[in-house]
Amino acid sequence: MLNTMTTPTAPVPHPGPMLTFPARILEIKEEAYAIATYQIAFESEAVRKTYRFRPGQFNMLYLPGIGEVPISMSSDPAESEVIGHTIRYAGNVTRAISRLQTGDVIGVRGPYGSYWPMERLIGDDLCIVTGGIGLAPLRPVIYHVLRHREQYGRVYLLYGARTPKDMLYTDEYEAWKQQGIQILLTVDRADPSWRGNVGVVPMLFYQLRLDPKKTAVLTCGPEIMIHFVIYEALARRISKERIYVSMERNMKCGVGLCGHCQFGPAFVCKEGPVFAYAAIEPFFGVEEF
Amino acid sequence: MSSETTLQALQELDFTRDLPPEQMEKLAALAFEVHFPENFTIFRELEAGELIYLIKSGQVALFVRVPGKGRTTILTLGPGELLGWSSLFPSGRKTASARTTTPVEAIAFNAAQLREAMEEDNALCCSLLWRVTQIIASRLKATRLQLLDIYAPSQEH
Ligand SMILES: Cc1cc2nc3c(=O)[nH]c(=O)nc-3n(C[C@H](O)[C@H](O)[C@H](O)COP(=O)(O)OP(=O)(O)OC[C@H]3O[C@@H](n4cnc5c(N)ncnc54)[C@H](O)[C@@H]3O)c2cc1C
Description:
The complex is a heterodimer.
Chain A: E1 21-32, E2 35-42, H1 45-50, E3 58-63, E4 67-72, E5 83-88, H2 92-98, E6 105-112, E7 125-131, H3 139-147, E8 155-161, H4 173-178, E9 181-187, E10 197-198, E11 215-220, H5 223-235, E12 243-246, E13 262-263, E14 266-267, H6 268-271, E15 274-276, H7 277-280
Chain B: H1 3-12, H2 14-17, H3 21-30, E1 32-36, E2 41-43, E3 51-57, E4 60-66, E5 70-77, E6 82-83, E7 97-100, E8 104-110, H4 111-120, H5 122-148
Antiparallel strand pairs in B: 1-8, 2-7, 3-6, 3-8, 4-5, 4-7
The structure holds flavin-adenine dinucleotide (FAD).
């Protein structure tokens, strides 16, 4: 049985999470190769005003005749009238999204899923460790921290990408640093202009002096990266209960019916995507799961 | 630098922090502090290299020369990390070149002296080899992850 005690469960803040509502694309910003951020707003004022999400949650984005995909919110949860989604063009549906333009309308249902336990982490040091598009579901955490900076201790962002050009949200790093977020960046492949770290993101742990009793790790990215992040976090005596992962397994229905995203006894869409590592340890890294 | 400040520096570094006091003192007696300016080549690939370093501050890039591609940075090392471990082994030639990308402060050890101390003191030898092995294991895992190219765009795109 999944240990729900250590995993925050999802609130249902607006009345029709199974209903799809039309939302208009207000802005599209290219972030990196094959990745863009879409700012969208619900057409209905009533939905716009009641819709709320928590950092780490996702929406199902629907294109008629093509399909539906789960995509995390990447924008500020305190400003939920305009919702940001950072999308990597992976296959059928996301490539169809890449052909949309500002002013086009898509279907949106949500929010779904568990979220990063920001209330429980008050008073803690936060170590946000992520790679590639994995920064998208963690950007709302950063916005939340910036709005409530005094509630958290030291906050680190450890972020890795394939090359310097693949890094997301680079124009925001300076502001984040100025507001007390320590950022360590690394790339797998450097170009001659790159002055930062080279190597994979878990290796950045070696540059930190963390207090294991006070530190929570929040991680999202390719599953294999998460694996190594957990290894380094545990090696620093951070407990399993204080390591949170977002498992962005492929899913279809978003409400725990179809079984596409089953992860051990849990459905990523219903009980995830954010889990305390203590709750999923037995299934983590096991191929069939 | 006095051995007292070296001792203090070793007590603060992850690599040495948990060593028993008598081992820490032995190491402190062998250690000396070095400073390098930015863009300074500390050692070159295939050099025999006599020194091993623990970085206190700053960043060092490890690079290799790849025919047709030139200088390729494979890894950077920062505060608390071990640089030049291959010299710990008698035949150990440096497996990459090391160049500072910022000013660097480090604690240096002469590899031959360190080996001698390890041969004389089994407990010290065990402590150090255990730590070096953990670092090599971590770097091996990291290299695998780097090889997997996990952030690559999907093949279909
Ligand atoms: C909770 C959750 C949150 C997510 N948040 C985001 C986000 O913020 N931004 C974003 O770009 N993507 C996100 N994803 C992944 C996104 O949902 C998939 O990329 C998308 O469903 C692919 O659909 P498609 O029709 O474009 O591609 P498909 O044609 O279905 O697949 C194309 C290729 O992508 C692979 N793929 C599909 N889904 C995933 C997945 N979940 N993980 C890894 N590989 C996959 C397939 O195996 C296939 O190789 C999230 C997934 C989940 C479960």
